[in-house]
Amino acid sequence: MSVSTVSSTAVRSVPEHYRHSFLHLYADIAWFGVLNGSALAFVAVYAARLGATGLQIGLLSAAPGMVTMLIALPAGQWLQTRPIGPAVFWSSIFFRLFYVTWIFLPLLLAPAMQIEALIVITFMMSVPGTVLAIGFNGLFAAAVPPEWRGYVAGWRNAAFAISSIIISFVCGVILNNVPFPYGFQIVFALGAFGALMSSLHIFFVRPLHDPLNKRDSQPIQTRIQDLADPGQTRTWLVGRFAIAPRAWMRLQPREWLSIDVLRGRFGRTTLLLFAFHAAQFMIIPLCPLFIVNILGLDDQTISWGSVVYYLAMLAAATQLPRMSDRWSQKQLLAVGILIMAQYPFWLGLAWDVTFYMVASVVGGISFAMVNGVLGNYLLERIPEDQRPSHLAWYSWGLNAAILIGSLLGPFIAGFTGLATALLIGAALRLLSGFALWRWG
């Protein structure tokens, strides 16, 4: 049995001093599910309906990768010297406020300019998004002891799936009954609200041991007062984020590159995950174009596909703690990737809604497995006192893969067509799963 999991029968035995952070981690991901089931689920569909090309949708996926490749490593070094809780909270606020701007795009810009604005906004929000992506993994590791990580990840997946199911259905009804583009504005508003509520719960997650964070031991009432006090907020922002660029510029490259972390098993792990993520993101720009332009599905049907996806994810997530008792994190991850290869396979073969729904089922199952164990798989291979630098390298590789995959998919589709490109992506995902099983 993996040491990073806890049996699903241990629901009532969570120690009191862990329960507070666990509950806020569940609430965080549930509200993120609101964002995921609304704005994130439909922004590519919205861009496709505006007439976006494959390259433009690819840039929506690739933009975070471009930015993160530039700043992930110094961001990891910067996080190494900051209290992890406040750093993650404020980076999430700066990142998620950008979702509010999506609401007003149809009022301000013509369709072609909206597509360009979405790409520019995505580039801008990727700066705090990089800090959040690296820091949250560290916060999760600091707040959840190893023996409870599989348990918490499983229930977070379940909470994420439930909220995503409900909101996806609601958004389908909205888009089916509210004229374009006003329906999408409502969907984007729901997403922005969910994103900011998620950030609020991140504020209350307490690292178990973070000597840099003096607020960990403070009562909740004091932390709420700190959050509500503009003076405290300004002081923290000036003291932490305003000096960040200067602090990064003072770092020598050898300080934040930390090449040594890539020697041995972690370097091999980073390379294997890079290959998987490149195959994973190669598909993402192609799916909305195939669904909208080839299958011709309406927004209500697309929302039902999302509901089926998250129902399958929920069913798989509830079984994840039990599977973690029997299999290692590496085995679960590899199997999840192998199943994930079936999503573009069935979608590429689709000629009507039937195979689209089949793809949604296997996609939901595989996402629950991959998303539920990937973080634990990484943490098993990272020394506790070197998490930010290791996670920064993983984030750099991830975003390099996002950049390459997001641009490679539309490039291949330009020569082969969307359906064939989806099948090629399925084959590459399959190969990456086998490689991780063998060498991960």
Structure in words:
The protein contains 19 helices and no strands. The chain has helices at residues 16-50, 54-80, 84-96, 98-108, 111-143, 149-177, 182-203, 220-228, 230-240, 244-250, 253-257, 265-283, 286-294, 299-326, 329-340, 342-349, 353-379, 387-416, 418-439. It is globular.
Radius of gyration: 21 Å
First CA to last CA: what distance? Answer: 18 Å
Number of separate strands = 0
Number of helices: 19
Topology:
Blueprint: H1 16-50, H2 54-80, H3 84-96, H4 98-108, H5 111-143, H6 149-177, H7 182-203, H8 220-228, H9 230-240, H10 244-250, H11 253-257, H12 265-283, H13 286-294, H14 299-326, H15 329-340, H16 342-349, H17 353-379, H18 387-416, H19 418-439
Care to give the gist of this entry?
The protein is mainly α and 440 residues long.
Keywords:
single chain; 440 residues; mainly alpha; 19 helices
